[in-house]
Specification:
CATH architecture of the largest domain in chain B: 3-Layer(aba) Sandwich
CATH topology of chain A: Rossmann fold
Number of strands of chain A: 7
Largest sheet of chain B: 7 strands, mixed
Number of strands of chain B: 14
Strand content of chain B: 15-25%
Number of helices of chain B: 13
Shape of chain A: globular
Distance between the termini of chain B: 28 Å
Distance between the termini of chain A: 26 Å
Order of helices and strands of chain A: HHHEHHEHEEEHHEHEH
Number of domains of chain A: 1
Order of helices and strands of chain B: EHEHHEHEHHEHEHEEEEHEEHEHEHH
CATH topology of the largest domain in chain B: Rossmann fold
Shape of chain B: globular
CATH class of chain A: Alpha Beta
CATH superfamily of the largest domain in chain B: Thiamin diphosphate (ThDP)-binding fold, Pyr/PP domains
Radius of gyration of chain B: 19 Å
Structural class of chain B: alpha/beta
Largest interface: A-B, 31 and 29 residues
Oligomer: heterodimer
CATH superfamily of chain A: Thiamin diphosphate (ThDP)-binding fold, Pyr/PP domains
Number of helices of chain A: 10
C-alpha cells in the first residue's frame, strides 16, 4: 500500500533528524549530500522499490545503489526505518565507530542487505548496468536505481557507463543525479562545471527528466515516467538543495563533509520539527 | 632407474586460444556464464563465445573501467561474468574497479587478461603487460593464475568458473609449448612438479615452465639434478611445495615472464624466508620496458629463455654452502 504525501513528509523529517544526530555523534561525515537526497530515497524505499526488508535477497527484487556512497547516513536511516534486520534503528549513532555496521561508506561486508559497496565515485552506474543486464537475461521485472552526485559525474567512468546504458537500451535502469550543485571544495560550477547537465544525458541517449527533488508529487511523476519509458534508460535530474532542511547547512559547501557540533545539532533539531 | 626422456618443444595453441575455446564449453553447460568484451574479442578469443551465445556476450567498447564494474554488477546479480581484455588494459585501466567493485566486496568476477608479458611481440611496450601479477596479487582475496599450456588453461579456466570469488587469469598471445599430457589434473593453489631433481628447484609459470624443462635437461648433462615446479597459481601460493623444495634441494630459481619486482619470485622468496631460507636467483624482466620485435627475439634479448634459466641455476648452485 502506498504512503500518502503527509506520511512521506513525516518519514522524511524523522530521517533528517536521524542524519543530523548520527553524523553529530560520529563527529565526521557528510550531512549536506545526505540531506539533499532524503525525499528521493524515502519515495524509492517506501513506495517504489519491489523489495522485502524481511527477505532482502528476494529473487527478481528491485535494487538501489548509492553511487555517491558518502551520503551513507541517508541510506542507513531509510533502511533502518524500513526494518532491515542488518540495519538496526537503535544503532544509527554508532556510525563510523569501530565495529559498527554503519561504516563510513556503504559496505556489504557489514550490511549484506546492501546491493553494492560504494564510496569511490563514478562506479555505481556501471554496477547498475550489470544488474540491469542480468535482469534482462533472466527475463525478470527487476529494475535497478542508482543515485549519483552532480560532482560525481565529473568522473570519466560515468560517461563510459552512460554510453553503454543507452547502447544496450537498458530501460530497466534508472540513474538519479542528485543535483545539489555543491561538491567538497565548493560549488560545482567553480570546480568543474557539469552544465548543461540534462542535455549531456540526452545527448548520451537517455530519456531525461528534470524535477524538484524535494517535492514528493514531482518525484512520483518522474519515477512513473521512468517506469513507462521503453527502449532507453532514464536519467532523473533531481534539482535539490545541499543541506536541505537545516538553514545553516543549506547551500553551504562547508557541510559537504563536516559534522555539526553538538550546539549545531541542537539548532538543527529545533528547525527539524 | 627409469631413463629420463628429454623435453622437446612441441607447440600447442596459445593459452588465450585455450581460454576462448573453454569458455564456449562452459557457456554450453551453464547459462549463467556471461562474457564482457572491450573491443578485443578477436584477440582475446571471446569471439567464439560471442558467436555461439550472442545474447550472453556484452560488448562494452573501448572502456575497460566500465567493463570491469559492469562485470561486478552482473556478478552481484548472480551471474558468472568473465571480463576480458589484454592484461595491460584489464588490469591497469580496470584496477580501481577491480579493487573497489570486485576485491573489497569479494564479488564472483572472473578477469582474464590476454597478451601478457613481452611475447606479444611487435606491438611493443604499451600493449605488453609485465606488472599485472604484482597488481593482481595486491588485490586482497583475489585468486591469481598463470597457466603454462592449453591443458592447464582449459582446466584452470574451468576451475575459476566453479570457484566462488574473484579470480584473475593471465594468458598469452603466442603458441604455447605443450607441457602436459592427457590425464593431468589441475587444482587452484596446488602446484605441479613437472620434473624431479635433488640439487636445485626451478619454480616457474606461463611460458617459462617449458624453458625450465629445457634448462633442466641441459643441467642434467652437467651433473645438476633439477626439480621443476609449475606454480600456475601465484595466489594463494602452494607454500608446502615451496618449503619442501627449499628443504630438499636447498636452492631455488624462480622464472617468469614478468617484472622481477612484484612477481612470482618475490612471493616465493617470502615463503622461503618464512620457512626454509636458502639461496635464490630470479629470472624475469629487470626494471625495464621491452620493445617491438618477434616474440622469440624478445624473449632471447630480455633473458627469458632456457639459457638464462640454466645460468641462474648454475649461479644459485654455486652459492650453496
Amino acid at each position: 500500500m502506498s504512503k500518502s504525501i503527509e506520511e512521506l513528509k513525516s518519514i522524511a523529517l524523522r530521517i533528517r533528524r536521524e542524519i543530523v544526530v548520527m553524523i553529530g555523534a560520529a563527529k565526521s561525515g557528510h550531512p549536506g549530500g545526505s540531506l539533499s537526497a532524503v525525499e528521493i530515497l524515502v519515495e524509492l524505499y517506501f513506495n517504489r522499490l519491489r523489495i522485502d526488508p524481511k527477505n532482502p535477497k528476494l529473487a527478481d527484487r528491485d535494487r538501489f545503489i548509492l553511487s555517491k556512497g558518502h551520503a551513507a547516513p541517508v541510506l542507513y536511516a531509510v533502511m533502518a526505518e524500513m526494518g532491515y534486520t542488518d540495519t538496526p534503528l537503535d544503532k544509527l549513532n554508532t556510525l563510523r565507530k569501530l565495529g559498527s555496521v554503519y561504516q563510513g561508506h556503504p559496505d556489504m561486508r557489514f550490511i549484506p542487505s546492501l546491493e553494492a559497496s560504494t564510496g569511490s565515485l563514478g562506479e555505481g552506474l556501471s554496477l547498475a548496468l550489470g544488474m540491469g543486464l542480468a535482469a534482462r537475461l533472466n527475463g525478470g521485472a527487476s529494475r535497478t536505481y542508482v543515485m549519483l552526485g552532480d560532482g560525481e559525474i565529473q568522473e570519466g567512468q560515468v560517461w563510459e557507463s552512460a554510453m553503454a546504458g543507452a547502447f544496450h537500451k537498458l530501460d530497466n535502469v534508472v540513474a538519479i543525479v542528485d543535483n545539489n550543485r555543491i561538491q567538497l571544495d565548493g560549488f560545482v560550477k567553480d570546480i568543474m562545471a557539469v552544465d548543461p547537465l540534462a542535455e549531456k544525458w540526452r545527448a548520451f541517449g537517455w530519456h531525461t527528466i528534470e524535477f524538484d527533488g524535494h517535492d514528493f508529487p514531482a518525484i512520483q511523476n518522474a519515477f512513473a515516467e521512468a517506469a513507462a519509458t521503453k527502449g532507453k534508460p532514464t536519467c532523473l535530474v533531481a534539482h535539490t538543495i545541499k543541506g536541505k532542511g537545516v538553514s545553516f547547512m543549506e547551500n553551504n559547501p562547508k557541510f559537504h563533509g563536516t559534522a555539526p557540533t553538538p550546539d549545531e545539532v541542537k539548532l538543527a533539531l529545533q528547525e527539524l520539527q | 632407474m627409469p631413463i629420463k626422456t628429454k623435453f622437446e618443444i612441441k607447440l600447442g595453441p596459445a593459452t588465450r586460444e585455450a581460454f576462448g575455446r573453454e569458455l564456449v564449453e562452459l557457456g554450453r553447460e551453464n547459462k549463467d556464464i556471461v562474457v564482457c568484451d572491450a573491443d578485443l574479442s578477436h584477440s582475446t578469443m571471446t569471439t567464439y563465445f560471442a558467436k555461439e551465445f550472442p545474447e550472453r556476450f556484452v560488448s562494452l567498447g573501448i572502456a575497460e573501467a566500465n567493463m570491469v564494474a559492469v562485470g561486478a554488477g552482473l556478478a552481484l546479480a548472480g551471474k558468472i561474468p568473465f571480463v576480458s581484455s589484454f592484461s595491460a588494459f584489464a588490469m591497469n585501466k580496470g584496477f580501481e574497479q577491480l579493487r573497489v567493485c570486485a576485491a573489497y566486496p569479494n564479488v564472483n568476477l572472473k578477469v582474464v587478461g590476454t597478451h601478457s608479458g613481452i611475447s606479444i611481440g611487435e606491438d611493443g611496450p604499451s600493449q605488453m603487460s609485465v606488472e599485472e601479477i604484482g597488481l593482481a596479487c595486491s588485490l586482497a582475496g583475489f585468486v591469481v593464475i598463470a597457466p603454462s599450456d592449453e591443458a592447464a588453461t582449459k582446466a584452470l579456466v574451468r576451475a575459476a568458473a566453479a570457484y566462488v570469488g574473484p579470480v584473475f587469469i593471465r594468458t598469452g598471445r603466442p603458441k604455447a609449448a605443450i607441457v602436459y599430457g592427457a590425464g593431468q589434473t589441475f587444482e587452484i593453489g596446488k602446484s605441479i612438479q613437472v620434473a624431479d631433481g635433488a640439487d636445485v628447484t626451478i619454480i616457474a609459470n606461463g611460458l617459462l615452465v617449458a624453458q625450465a624443462l629445457l634448462a633442466a635437461d641441459t643441467l642434467e648433462g652437467e651433473g645438476i639434478s633439477t626439480r621443476v615446479i609449475d606454480m600456475h597459481t601465484v595466489k594463494p601460493l602452494d607454500r608446502e611445495a615451496i618449503s619442501r623444495a627449499a628443504a630438499e634441494t636447498k636452492a631455488i630459481v624462480v622464472a617468469e615472464e614478468h617484472l622481477v619486482d612484484g612477481g612470482l619470485g618475490v612471493r616465493v622468496a617470502q615463503v622461503v624466508a618464512e620457512t626454509r631460507p636458502c639461496p635464490m636467483e630470479f629470472v624475469g624482466i629487470q626494471n625495464t620496458y621491452a620493445e617491438s620485435g618477434q616474440p622469440d627475439e624478445l624473449l632471447d634479448k630480455y633473458g627469458l629463455i632456457a639459457r638464462d634459466v640454466a645460468a641462474a641455476v648454475r649461479k644459485v648452485v654455486a652459492r650453496k654452502n
